[in-house]
Amino acid sequence: MLFDSSGPVTQSEIDSFIGFLGLPSRIPTTALYNQIANGQAGQDVEALALVYEITQNTQILDRMITYSDTFLSLRNDPVNGRIMWTGQRELIWCTKPNNETTSGYAGSEGLDTVGHIAYTAYQILKTPCLWNKNVTDNDPYKYGKTYKERALTYVTEMDKTIDTYYLKYFIREDDSRIYNPNSSAWTNLNEMPANSPMPWNRQQMMANGFLRMAECHEIIGDDEARVNKYFNIIQVSIDWMVSNFIPVKSNNGRDVYIWTNSEVSNSIEEISTNAMYDIWGMYRAWQRKDKLNVSNDVMVKLANTMMYVINIDDNKIATRVDGTYDNTTTTTLYGPWAFYAEFIPDWYNFVANVNIDNVKDGPQYIGALLWVKNSHAFFISPPFGTEI
Prior knowledge:
By secondary structure, the protein is mostly helical. Helix content is about 50%, strand content about 0%. The protein has one domain: Glycosyltransferase (Alpha/alpha barrel), CATH 1.50.10.
């Protein structure tokens, strides 16, 4: 894919992006191994949505719909599907092979998939001029001929997954915190201890689903109580995670944070997709400051952590958020790290430079980079901040 790190997003970049994501081979045939959550197909949808926000190109939206239709079609069948750890055929996605002892598992990744599908619905609902027009795909799964019908199907079906599985087993009623299910059957999966705090990255995968569904219901205007419930779960999760951030000073005297993988873990969070989901969830919440309380001070300290701790210069990156690494550094940061150029503009240049050879490999790099580049070029929603 084409990418020029400077200047406004160009038509050539958009055409290249559309051409790459238009490849039939990118549409998944299975939900195994998190392909439609934090895997390739799930990240494709996130990138498509970001570039759709830049362009309002219906070809991009139609591609999102193709992905989301496929994701929904891959959900476990409530009549003939797999029996899960609960003893029921749950409305979830099976991410483990059927012949494994963990085949009954379904966890945080499923709500990330909900988030991808709901993000598609959200983009449709934000574009009312399309509502009564027919989607160009002839409705292969009978989810609705018009754009609005398709969006409403997504919302209805994702609420079913949330209501019958995630709220029931993962959200504590007394404090709305996200915990692993309190069941010996869950323990037998050897995934994570029953009734233990969900790691931060997994909480933010789940928050993605709650956030995008809340935003859909906001536009539809049909269920204020549900909207408030979803936002409250996100706020509780964010507050909980921030309370576990450890404030320290960087080598150059900046205020930064370090943190572990969960409240009960001693392992410093890894840069990989773990920390990416942590900081991505924080940024998404910060974008919704009208509903969620995330201070600029916290966001600046996270940005400082990126710029002055995990950035080891010479396009090298630590493997943990405290700036440490074992035998080697990494030279890759997925696109969502670039969002923090909102607070330190030079951070965008760093992320773009380390990924300049990676953007050809997939939208997990280029989608967010194009979105941030566009914001940087036109000072869009809101303008980039200043370094503190």
